[in-house]
Amino acid sequence: MQEYLILFAIVFGVNLLPAFGPPTWAIIVFYGLTSDLPLPGLVVTAALASSSGRYILAHGFRLLASRVSEKTQKSLAAARAAFERRPHHSWLALVFFAVSPLPSAQQFAAVGLAGVRIFPFTLAFFAGRLVSYSFYAGTAQLADQYTDIGDIFRASLTSPWGIALQIFLLGGLAVMLKVDWTKIFGPAPEHTDPDSHGSD
Where is the chain membrane-spanning (predicted)? Predict the structure, then answer.
């Protein structure tokens, strides 16, 4: 039981980070090589921990969004309303969260900033991680035959492409806050002045 709690705490903590944390798959490989945890327990524990961490991370960015200027809040509300007006976009986004190879921290940050419902994205993320973590845990022994676990962690943390990608995605979050989405999508319904339509 203690091993499960330690695994959960490590993965949960890593997934609270908005950027530059070690990838969870590397932790899965490490546990697959060094522990006696059965694969189903390892996978489910890691998936629950990572999903919980991302869920809290998204709520942290939602709190941040509530503290920005009123103009920025109206802009983010316009982006959320535009997203919610198109149900097929929601389904595509959920699928993307389940299978995306991109770093998920910035994706959850964007969901939190936009103010859309976090739980469906967390559920899609959890389902996708059950599959991907099963793959990593199941192939851990194969990885051990070709590389050292230390090399895996070093490569995951120091990859120039990986660092550049995270910086790019963080820049995307900054742009998301700076763009006036009301000029693109129009104001959200809750920010529409009812008197503005009185002469129509």
Answer: 7-33, 39-57, 118-136, 157-177
What is the DSSP secondary-structure string of the chain? -HHHHHHHHHHHHHTT-SSSPPPHHHHHHHHHHH----HHHHHHHHHHHHHHHHHHHHHHHHHHHTTS-HHHHHHHHHHHHHHHT-HHHHHHHHHHHHH--S-HHHHHHHHHHHT--SHHHHHHHHHHHHHHHHHHHHTHHHHHHHS-HHHHHHHHHH-HHHHHHHHHHHHHHHHHHHS-THHHH---GGG--GGGGTT-
Q: Which distant-in-sequence residues (6+ apart) come within 8 Å of 184 by Cβ?
A: 78, 82
Q: What is the pLDDT of residues 30-61, one digit of tens each?
A: 887 888 888 889 999 999 999 999 999 999 99
| pTM for this model (two decimals) | 0.81
111, 113, 116, 120 alpha-carbon torsion, rounded to 10°: 30
Compute the distance between CA of residue 159 and CA of residue 138 in angstroms, rounded to an integer: 24
Q: What is the C-alpha separation between 180 and 200, in angstroms, rounded?
A: 26
What type of residue sits at position 183?
K
The string of pLDDT tens digits covering residues 1-22 is 888 999 999 999 999 998 877 8
Two tokens, residue 74: 């109206």
